[in-house]
Amino acid sequence: MAKPLDMPIRLVAALLLGAATAVTAHEHHMDKIPEGEAISADPIDSILWVHILVQTLAWGIIFPTGMVLGIIHSKWHVPVQTTGSVLAIIGYFLGHKHKGRQFTVNAHAQFVPVISFILITQIIMGIYLKLHLEKGIHGKIRIVVVKAHSIVGKLMPVVIWVQFLFGGITAMGFCRGEHVGQCAAHFIMGSAFIAYGILLTIILLVGQVWLRKTGRSQEFFDSLVIAAWGCVNTFTEHRWGTAWVKNDLQHTAMGIIWWCAGLVGIWLSRTRDGRPKRNLIPGIVILLTGWGMSAHPQTLPLSNMVHQIFGYTLMAAGLTRIIEISFVLKDRSTVNRDVHDPNSFQYLTPFLLYASGFLFMGATEEQMQLLSDAHVTHVSYVLILFSIAFLLFLFTNMLIHLYAVSNWSSNTKSDDENPRPNGVANGHTRADLRVRDAEEFELEGLISDDEDARPLVAKEERQTPV
Question: Do residues 423 and 206 touch, judged by C-beta distance below 8 A?
């Protein structure tokens, strides 16, 4: 029999299914939109602002928190995700009841069925797992559902991020016609920098055990992605067979140096005997990319200044990465395996990548024109973007802290839905520390015996008559 807690979950699932079905049936009013435009001249009304705030709370804060609670198998996972689902439904209907600004057919609305289907799937799988059906065929099904539930749950933040971007673009009527290409480039590359910063934060705080298990250095994975991304940019930044226009050559050259440097970084990520080794290539690539973007020619003075600050911030990220590896870590993976928290300097590179991503996403042609017409200075705009970067950096660290603290507790449950604890803040479990200390003690004894034996053997050999 289902538990009492499952009833509200099923109700939420039913409501979401109805909401997703209503997407195709609902028709937006578009009678006030001028021909050739994406939005009407009306302002965003209060109902739409509430829709934005509620969906930001539900999808941007509650669901990611619930995801982490699910990973650590917390009893709060279901209540938190249920609360988020209810708010998401309320926000959905608010989005269809607003007045004021009208919108044409857009990616944000068309993506709603996709994200709703993912959420419904998660809820259904969650209900199945809560029923704990493990006998007979359910035992095999459960294994598959556990893995699928975990994968889809970790995919949700990416899907939510895409929908948020679609929402912002739709609200302003941006990224249409001739602006689609440069708009996509800014949002994809900016999101990539932020994602890179988040991954570095995760590895810094809780990923060292996983990294050691792979037998690879962090620079191997960084260089692999850099090389792959460079190959894509080399052949997509210019439409081959046509004339070179605007910044095509600079973009293509940047793609070339990425895959060239990426291959070098992959090669240098191992020592001669096959052990993982740190290297500076990813940091150098980030620095050179920032230098190139700081000198990127723009049409508007405001755009030129914002691109310069973006380039300087990216250069700073590359420089701090080089300093971290060379002088703080001295080619080690961590400062000290017995210290639970990383060095304060190590937080700089990830944060600067967050800031670089927001600066680049906020520097599209249409955004720059809008701000320039409103006489907004680059200083004010950059400070706002840095503020947003600080908030996301804070939220990411809070989620990682929630995960890490749960693994410090000896009362953590362990089953198919709860991954094996990854350790304390820098990725080392207390058990690992004790085992390593014991191994080092035994190894020290062996080394001492050998070292003491060699002088005795040498001494005996010297005393043996020829």
Answer: yes
